[in-house]
UniProtKB/TrEMBL annotation:
An individual GO BP term: methylation
Keywords, in A-Z order: Methyltransferase, Transferase
Domain of life: Bacteria
GO molecular function term, any single one: methyltransferase activity
Species: Tabrizicola oligotrophica
InterPro entries linked: FkbM_mtfrase, SAM-dependent_MTase, SAM-dependent_MTases_sf
Lineage: Bacteria, Pseudomonadati, Pseudomonadota, Alphaproteobacteria, Rhodobacterales
Official protein name in the record: FkbM family methyltransferase
Domain (Methyltransferase FkbM) ranges: 83-220
Transport found in the keyword field: no
Transmembrane spans: none
NCBIfam families: fkbM_fam (TIGR01444)
Length: 259
């Protein structure tokens, strides 16, 4: 009860602060934020104002703007955009609303995030441009069940979860899910499982040669850079937000950044 009162009080403070901003509207219940971004109305579902992503949505903006601008600069027009580790849909919604992608295919195993993701897509009228067939599944280099989502700080960072043994969640190979798709862009943010995900996408990457935006943990950095070299890709851009990982934008080598 105390936590609910604190949450409601926090929402009320933000709602009051929004009164002077015509480009930002917070619903009385604090459940939906309407923002005006680049001349477009964008709706965000709000369930936890302390969450690192929802805190930005509450302020009427997308999370990780620097990363999103890198994606904007390199995402092909009318792309088929695969969002691996979609969380509550921040990047997927940006791609749909701001980049005009043709289709988004999100993968997200966290059941708590799924409800918010679906709501965000629905509120913005974007369900028709999304293939939601694989929601509830994670990706890896082999199919496996019996997994659970472990989140270190669920009240502050819902996206900081890792799959561990002991539950009912499943992972599959990306190649099995994406076999019929002509993929143009892949975003990967999977909290340390990026190399397993890349291995499970080997056929798709060879077949489609998509642009890839990927968060890489420091522990996987050397292995990732070796993978880039042998896979015929080149680093086109990077951005580091946190000390423990770095974001890489990679393209087929002929389109990459000169050394």
């Amino acid at each position: 009860m105390k936590e609910r009162r604190q949450k409601n009080a926090l929402l009320a403070r933000h709602a009051a602060a929004a009164v002077a901003r015509p480009d930002l509207v917070v619903s009385p219940a604090g459940q939906v934020v309407r923002a005006e971004i680049a001349g477009q109305a964008v709706f965000f579902t709000l369930t936890n104002p302390r969450d690192v992503i929802q805190k930005e949505h509450l302020a009427g903006r997308f999370y990780e703007p620097e990363e999103l601008e890198i994606i904007r600069a390199h995402c092909p027009q009318a792309a088929v955009f695969v969002d691996i580790g979609a969380n509550i849909g921040n990047h997927a919604l940006f791609a749909l609303k701001m980049l005009g992608v043709r289709k988004v295919i999100p993968f997200e195993p966290n059941p708590v995030a799924l409800a918010v993701l679906r709501s965000n897509l629905g509120l913005n009228g974007e369900l028709g441009r999304c293939d939601l067939a694989h929601l509830g599944l994670g990706l890896s280099d082999r199919a496996q069940g019996g997994l659970a989502m472990e989140v270190d700080k669920p009240n502050k960072n819902l996206g900081g979860g890792r799959l561990v043994e002991g539950g009912e969640l499943r992972v599959i190979r990306g190649d099995d899910a994406l076999a019929p798709e002509a993929v143009d862009f892949i975003k990967i943010d999977v909290e340390g499982m990026e190399m397993q995900v890349l291995r499970g996408l080997s056929q798709t990457i060879t077949r489609c040669r998509p642009v890839i935006f990927i968060e890489v943990d420091e522990a996987n950095r050397a292995e990732f850079l070796a993978w880039v070299a042998v896979s015929g890709y080149a680093i086109a851009d990077t951005f580091r937000r946190y000390p423990v990982n770095e974001n890489f934008l990679i393209k087929p080598a002929s389109a990459g950044r000169p050394a």
